[in-house]
Amino acid sequence: MQEKAPLTQLLSVLIAANDKKEKPKPILLKIAPDLTDTQLDDIIDIVRETGIHGIIATNTTLDRGNLTEDITSIGMGGLSGAPLRDRSTEVIRYISQKSEGRVPIIGVGGITTPTDALEKLKAGASLIQVYTGMIYEGPGLVKEINKAILKRK
Ligand SMILES: Cc1cc2nc3c(=O)[nH]c(=O)nc-3n(C[C@H](O)[C@H](O)[C@H](O)COP(=O)(O)O)c2cc1C
Q1: Which domains can be identified in the chain, with CATH numbers?
Q2: Which residue out of 30, 35, 59 has the highest number of ligand 1 atoms within 8 Å of its CB and is therefore the one to mutate?
Q3: How many other C-beta atoms are found inside a 10 Å radius of the C-beta of residue 64?
Q4: pLDDT at 98
Q5: Closest CA to 133 of 142, 125, 124
Q6: Cβ of residue 81 lying under 6 Å from some atom of ligand 1
Q7: Which atom of ligand 1 approaches the CA of 111 most closely?
Q8: 76-94 pLDDT per residue, tens
Q9: Residue 29 pLDDT > 70, yes or no?
Q10: Nearest-angstrom CA–CA distance, 44 and 97
């Protein structure tokens, strides 16, 4: 029998422990925007196989291609915010299409305007998360996003 991938094994243990709880909680896997399409296909298979509740797409990126300034001197930490936006939306769209909308996705990455948020939802996210955008725009951004969601056709 083929050995299961370490991530599958890890998630299976988590699901089993969660199922034993009086009130099990949803378990979602958060993924990097730097994964290849083949790796994303593997993730979709793992979600199906383990029965976890969804994917959070995406975490920060190691890619520096969208930056206009060289920030090498501050190190190779994960980059968040606007430079990440389009790749994160692309990952959401890819997973949504490949899984035929069957995998719940929390969309996150570079949402700094209501339009960014609507794009994530249109790409297939069921929920969205705002992190860096809250720092630059403040909590009023959430109100603006909610208004845009209510107005959308
Ligand atoms: C300072 C900072 C700390 C973060 N810490 C975590 C963390 O502990 N766990 C996690 O899953 N993601 C963490 N993230 C990633 C964010 O949750 C989010 O996925 C990412 O920043 C992309 O969204 P954004 O462009 O809205 O910031 C962190 C991001 C930043 C900027």
Answers
A1: 25-61+76-151 (3.20.20.70)
A2: 59
A3: 13
A4: 97
A5: 142
A6: yes
A7: 26
A8: 889 999 999 999 999 999 9
A9: yes
A10: 11
